[in-house]
Amino acid sequence: MLTDAQWALIEPNCLGKLSDPDRSSRNNRLFIKAVLCIACRGSPWRDLPTPFGNWSTTL
Q: pTM above the 0.90 mark?
């Protein structure tokens, strides 16, 4: 769904990098993949597949 080349273009624009003060994120790539999954399916967050974790804590 998200190739390494695509992620390399997106990653510098994500919050939560080590170089960003006062920001933290456990896994930006997983979050972006979850957003793409929901956008492609057109379904609500509560229908997020289990590999992405609990829908209420993915955000």
A: no
